[in-house]
Design brief:
Blueprint (H helix, E strand, L loop, with lengths): L4 E6 L5 H11 L2 E5 L3 E6 L1 H10 L5 E10 L3 H10 L11 E9 L6 H20 L4 E2 L6 E8 L2 E7 L21 H10 L7 E4 L6 H11 L20 H12 L9 E5 L2 H13 L6 E5 L13 E5 L11 H15 L3 E7 L2 H4 L8 E7 L2 E10 L11
Parallel strand pairs: 5-6, 5-7, 9-10, 9-12, 10-11, 12-13
Antiparallel strand pairs: 1-3, 1-4, 2-3, 4-8, 7-8, 13-15, 14-15
Helix pairs in contact: 2-7, 3-4, 5-6
């Protein structure tokens, strides 16, 4: 039986507890949340499963060695001394990413270059040839992480960021990151046991992630490949076993997921993405102005959305946010509404008291995920959502 080894899952700020919970539910051991990452242990099959099934992970890294460094020459010598031929052939290709938190080492691109030089020089000295560098589709993607004087070399098992699910074929202005969308839905506590509405759905990312959560569909099922598929020890039979086991856990969904958008061409793009994800039977999107809409049933409803921030889309944000508050208050009773925004000034104009505020980042924008509870009648007669 293969031994477990340590891995690190990278994520977005604020989603660490959600990712830790995901990993535990999937079967990871020694799960420890950090800042923008969660460390854990598992075997090779679990590494495949984490890449396929984690909704809030951006990368799954496999550390392979750690050592102390004090000079740039230390980095070169110790990277050079590592047996890279155990992980790739000279006919393969590599790419190196670097993350640096150190007073002595301040230029991550230079550290990545130094690491690459050490690896290719080792192959040249041993075999007379150097492997190629391929930044887009390398055989081996390597991550070097320096924290003060501690240097960790890891294999990137994911390749392209795991937010690139593979279903998005049409993009709109200011689309939300898929990992962030999934994290917001999971932070909201929605698990497919009620209706869900995104009243400003854009390219349909929140809707698509919600449907995959509701049906327990692996989020990265549509990806072309993971980096580990190019590794020398890739076990295709084991991966197919993991994938088939995950597919057997897909479940039925008995509620509705609906999206609105005021722009007809945006609705078309959202539908293209939803169809690409094979989720049309679960999601409906229509050309609808949220501010002229109302709740259509008496059932409990989650409203989850990413309104314009006045950062990338030019709008009168204060007027927009005031209209959001008015519409929720008067037309959406029995609703738990969640929205993310980086426009804190406009948020004051919603006119509703949030019951929760969670700090997140949308790209580089510091944002707040806020929750508003719209009760049926008075608070004393509120329904549980």
């Amino acid at each position: 039986m293969e031994k477990n080894f340590k891995m690190v899952a990278k994520t977005l700020f604020g989603l660490e507890p959600i990712l830790a919970t995901e990993l535990r539910k999937l079967g990871a051991s020694k799960v420890e949340p950090g800042t923008r990452n969660v460390s854990f242990e598992g075997d090779t099959g679990f590494m495949y499963k984490a890449n396929l099934c984690c909704r809030t992970a951006i990368k799954i890294l496999k550390p392979i060695t750690t050592f102390n460094v004090f000079t740039e020459e230390d980095i070169y010598k110790k990277v050079y001394a590592f047996p890279w031929e155990n992980f790739m052939n000279v006919d393969g290709s590599l790419a190196v990413d670097a993350t640096v938190f150190s007073d002595k080492f301040t230029h991550s691109k230079y550290i990545a270059l130094k690491t690459k030089d050490a690896i290719v020089d080792r192959f040249r000295d041993k075999e007379g040839r150097r492997p190629d560098v391929d930044l887009d589709h390398p055989t081996l993607r390597i991550n070097i992480h320096i924290d003060r004087n501690i240097c960790t070399l890891s294999l990137d098992s994911s390749g392209q960021s795991l937010h690139k699910r593979g279903y998005k074929v049409a993009s709109t202005m200011a689309p939300i990151n898929e990992v962030l969308a999934a994290g917001i839905i999971m932070l909201a506590g929605w698990n497919g046991q009620s209706d869900l509405l995104d009243p400003m759905c854009g390219s349909g990312t929140i809707l698509t992630e919600a449907a995959m959560i509701a049906c327990n569909i692996p989020p990265n099922l549509n990806r072309d490949e993971f980096a580990f598929e190019n590794w020398l020890d890739f076990d295709v039979d084991l991966y197919e076993l993991i994938e088939n086991a995950a597919l057997k856990k897909i479940r039925d969904f008995h509620y509705t997921i609906q999206g609105f958008d005021i722009e007809a061409d945006v609705v078309k793009k959202a539908n293209e993405n939803i169809e690409s994800a094979n989720l049309k039977e679960f999601i409906s999107v229509k050309n609808q102005d949220f501010f002229t809409s109302k709740k259509e049933t008496e059932r409990s409803l989650f409203v989850v959305f990413n309104p314009p921030y006045d950062e990338r889309i030019q709008v009168d944000a204060e007027k927009l946010y005031a209209s959001i508050g008015t519409t929720l208050k008067h037309k959406y009773p029995g609703t738990q509404a969640w929205m993310i925004t980086s426009n804190m000034e406009a948020l004051k104009h919603v006119g509703l008291r949030p019951s929760r505020r969670i700090k997140l980042y949308n790209g580089k924008l510091e944002s707040k995920l806020v929750r508003y509870d719209m009760y049926e009648g008075s608070k004393k007669t509120k329904k549980n959502l």
